[in-house]
């Protein structure tokens, strides 16, 4: 703003520029005008008596005459009025106020302002003018609002997911419960049928079916201890399942698990491994225990960084010469072949130096 404009002269006449206490009105106006903010001087009745040139620019006011002498609060939207009146009253009391408020420019552009309302004292120490300085903070406010909206959306999504997860947990627990009940019911039914059959071969077959389903139930039980994870700690799973098999069978299963506690295996691989272990241990007891108490040695160990070796050996008569698991028609060998393919395992069937059967599966950790 030019220090010689009509409104400056009017200001000078009213003594408003003494606010700087410099006695240099031109200098005082220059300082106010240089501020990048919108600076207004407001009299004690709340009327605008001065607006800096940058302020007119920011507010898109072309002629100060259109606002000069108007109540400052009337330049704002009604919702800001109360805040402004309070700020003016506080300034009259000699205190300063800061707030953030929305006010469109004279041409209607939406703008947010950080406003400071400060009392201006005359040389006698009385408040005789009020200085309002508004800084355009639209970009900051918009960015903050966008962040707040994003945070709120995120919080809403997290809450929704939490609810869904909680519902899923309840559902999983319910499914787990039902599966266990179904297993128990089928096993009970098969055992009942096995007892009722007079044909020993049929009785044995049905009892075998019951025991395989019991194995499935055991694998399920080990797997669903942590239903949320698609991986499980291998060592705990394998030793749990083998202890379980040992209890259910002869109590002569010796397990050696040489796998780091933290090693994880996918649920799919663990299911396959569980079935393989159950079939091999079952076979060892069935075929090695014909003449004496069967001892089954199960070793599960890591080989290098990424492979595992499962070995199941017994103290029985061993496998016949030229034994080919794929050529056998027993269900056990078929289960072994399906699951060892699923594990992508190299399968070897040999005899131990002592003559017992030994099955080894070498497979990648997945
Ligand atoms: N540990 C073992 N010791 C000796 N022979 C074995 C051993 N495991 C398997 N065999 C031989 O391999 C054959 C095939 O085994 P497989 O498990 O497929 O059938 P099964 O055990 O006879 O019957 P099931 O269908 O009930 O398993 C067995 O009949 C047995 O001759
Ligand atoms: Mg078998």
From TrEMBL:
This is histidine kinase. It is an enzyme of class 2 (transferase). It comes from the Bacteria. The keyword Phosphoprotein applies. PANTHER family: ETHYLENE RESPONSE SENSOR PROTEIN (PTHR41523:SF8), TWO-COMPONENT SYSTEM SENSOR PROTEIN (PTHR41523). GO terms for molecular function: ATP binding; protein histidine kinase activity. InterPro entries: HATPase_C_sf, HATPase_dom, His_kinase_dom, PAS, PAS-assoc_C, PAS-like_dom_sf, PAS_4, Sig_transdc_His_kin_sub2_dim/P. Keywords: ATP-binding, Flavoprotein, FMN, Kinase, Nucleotide-binding, Phosphoprotein, Repeat, Transferase, Virulence. The keyword Kinase applies. Its EC number is 2.7.13.3.
């Amino acid at each position: 703003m030019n220090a010689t404009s009509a409104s400056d002269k009017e200001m000078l006449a009213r003594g408003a520029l003494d606010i700087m206490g410099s006695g240099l009105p031109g200098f005082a106006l220059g300082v106010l005008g240089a501020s990048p903010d919108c600076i207004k001087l407001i009299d004690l009745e709340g009327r605008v008596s001065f607006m800096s040139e940058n302020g007119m620019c920011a507010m898109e006011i072309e002629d100060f005459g259109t606002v000069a002498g108007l109540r400052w609060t009337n330049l704002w939207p009604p919702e800001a009025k109360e805040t402004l009146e309070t700020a003016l009253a506080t300034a009259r009391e000699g205190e300063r106020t800061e707030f953030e408020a929305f006010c469109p420019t004279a041409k209607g552009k939406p703008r947010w302002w950080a406003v400071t309302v400060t009392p201006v004292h005359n040389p006698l120490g009385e408040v005789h003018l009020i200085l309002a300085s508004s800084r355009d903070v639209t970009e900051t406010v918009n960015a903050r609002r966008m962040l707040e909206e994003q945070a709120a959306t995120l919080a809403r999504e997290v809450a929704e997911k939490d609810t869904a997860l909680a519902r899923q947990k309840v559902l999983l627990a319910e499914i787990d419960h039902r599966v266990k009940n179904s297993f128990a019911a089928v096993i009970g039914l098969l055992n009942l049928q096995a007892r009722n059959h007079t044909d020993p071969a049929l009785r044995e077959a049905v009892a075998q079916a019951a025991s395989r389903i019991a194995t499935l139930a055991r694998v399920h039980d080990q797997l669903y201890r942590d239903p949320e994870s698609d991986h499980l700690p291998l060592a705990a799973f394998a030793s749990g399942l083998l202890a379980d098999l040992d209890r259910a069978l002869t109590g002569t299963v010796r397990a050696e698990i040489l796998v780091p506690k933290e090693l994880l295996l996918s649920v799919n691989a663990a299911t396959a491994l569980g079935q393989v272990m159950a079939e091999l241990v079952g076979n060892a007891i069935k075929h090695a225990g014909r003449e004496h108490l069967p001892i089954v040695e199960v070793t599960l160990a890591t080989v290098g960084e990424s492979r595992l070796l499962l070995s199941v050996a017994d103290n029985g008569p061993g496998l016949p010469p030229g034994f080919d698991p794929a050529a056998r028609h027993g269900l056990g060998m078929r289960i072994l072949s399906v699951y060892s393919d699923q594990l992508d395992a190299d399968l070897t069937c040999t005899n131990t130096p002592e003559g017992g059967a030994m099955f080894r599966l070498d497979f990648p950790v997945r």
